[in-house]
């Protein structure tokens, strides 16, 4: 299963009900909310609203960085129809490093100057996201307990 898109299966199945209020995942290690467009789900770490934006296209999902409260749609970390999208943690981290140059150029061109961000800050936070995704993807669901007596 795709390392980045695994969480989207949980959102689609209704295991995580994140509309309209943000909810905590894994005891507050990350948060999620579905936006009003009913297509975009945000996953962010509990600092500075930085994480991933999952845009549901029906059967496919596009994943973009969510940095300091803004979805950076110019950068695609995973595109639904792309045969070369990152399938593993290593491929995702490689994609983050390759896209950080594009992100640096966006910051330099001024479109996102108001975010006062930097490429090293972006990289560090995306590596935290990769750590959390590794944790989330490895967690198992324990079934409902039966009452005795």
Explain how this protein is built.
The structure is a single chain. It contains three helices and six strands. A hairpin with a 5-residue loop joins strand 2 (30-34) and strand 3. The chain is globular. It is of the alpha+beta class. It has helices spanning 6-13, 89-109, 119-138, and strands at 23-25, 30-34, 40-45, 50-56, 61-67, 70-71. Helix 2 runs antiparallel to helix 3.
Please count the helical segments: 3
Helix content: 25-40%
Q: How many angstroms does the end-to-end distance come to? A: 40 Å
Total count of strands: 6
Task: Name the structural class.
Answer: alpha+beta
In the sheet with the most strands, the strands line up as: 1-2-3-4-5-6
Shape: globular
Secondary-structure map with pairings?
Elements: H1 6-13, E1 23-25, E2 30-34, E3 40-45, E4 50-56, E5 61-67, E6 70-71, H2 89-109, H3 119-138
Describe, in short, the structure shown.
This protein is α+β, with helices and mostly antiparallel strands and 149 residues long. It is globular, with a radius of gyration of 16 Å.
Features:
3 helices, globular, 149 residues, six-stranded antiparallel beta sheet, alpha+beta
